[in-house]
Amino acid sequence: MQQIFFTLLIGPMVPVPAPAAVSNALQSAQVTVASGQRSGFQLLFNVATNSLLNTTLLPAGLFDPGIRVILMAIVNGIPNVLMDGIVMRQEFAPSNQPGQSTLTVTGEDVSVMMGLIDLKGIPYPAMSVELRVAAILAKYAIYGLVPLIIPSLFPDLNLPMKSIAFQKGTDLDYINQLAKENGYVFYLSPGPAPGVNLAYFGPEIRIGVPQPALNINMDAATNVESLSFSLDGSTREQLAVLIQEPFTKLNIPVPIPSLSPYAPPLAAKSAPALHLKFLEGAAKLDPLKAMIQGIGKATEANDAITASGSLDVLRYGRVLGARQLVGVRGSGPAYDGLYFVKSVTHNLNPRKREYKQSFNLARNGLISLTPRVVP
Which of 23, 125, 328, 349 ranks highest by number of CB atoms within 10 Å? Predict the structure, then answer.
């Protein structure tokens, strides 16, 4: 028999298991994880007038901004850390009806703490991009950040006598800027243990072992509640960079290849690129840097086909993870095959022991490149 359990940890800096009064009052929880943006969460509590939550814990600051929250789901004996975040907002709605008062707590993953202080002007002499990112992440070790930094294909090390790199904006702004300049992404992924966060700085990877397939229209094997596809001709773009010729100062357009070793095509028939878009600011860059930025952007620009749907985790048998591959079966030869999971929203109802997910998938075109999708 498949089982599911939820665990909530809360507290300043190092969270501990939530008091029973808090766990019992939790009505629902929602966690959103998406490629290209910070993860967020929202917790909804029922608050009785004379409950410990209302009379003691709320006034004592248990849900104040800055409090750390870890939410876990144990599915079939396997723990899944869904969120390690920081409370940023609370909303209390009293009601004249007994037991109908609610407290809504909203927050973001712990990377939000990296974007609160403007540290413009910090020098990084003779430090590569990777060393700068590592130095910044080391300041947040208390949040359990474990750096996973992929070296740049073409390292750029500035000599102190020639130039020195200076930080612009907050730590989070600066890391995102460095990621953009190298065609990379930066995000935090909670787990595998509570209190630990993988800090990934590198290319968006769309390869690896796919997750169990999402089955639609397959009778007893169906494991999704809904699934629909969309092919939008205005979505896919052909990117190009304007390279400035050093002698004549003329801007020469150079198309950016859509192939990346980290994100190979998932479909045999790519959707046509009806739009031509020039990479902003590329004319002022070194040609090699401009192409590196462009290849990173081209990966996202190829996503002409999107799919959205929902599933029950207990029927699916595990938690569908974002930023990974997943197979689709039962929709027909045009849309079956592997997809990249762009975003996942976890919807939890601890009282009913319900755990559902809504998701968004993407790939470059029609007809699967894989002859068979792993069930």
Answer: 328
In sequence order, the 6+-apart residues with CB closer than 8 A to the CB of 234 are 274, 275
Cα dihedral 215, 220, 225, 230 in deg (nearest 10):
30
**Which domains are assigned to the chain?**
4-110 (2.30.300.10), 117-202 (3.55.50), 212-343+361-375 (no CATH)
How far is it, in rounded angstroms, from Cα 214 to Cα 38? 25
- Parallel/antiparallel/unpaired status of strands 275-278 and 237-244: parallel
Q: What is the mean pLDDT of each run of 10 residues along the chain (375 residues)?
A: 86 93 95 94 94 93 96 93 97 88 96 94 89 96 95 70 85 94 91 95 91 95 96 77 70 70 85 72 60 65 89 95 96 95 96 94 91 82
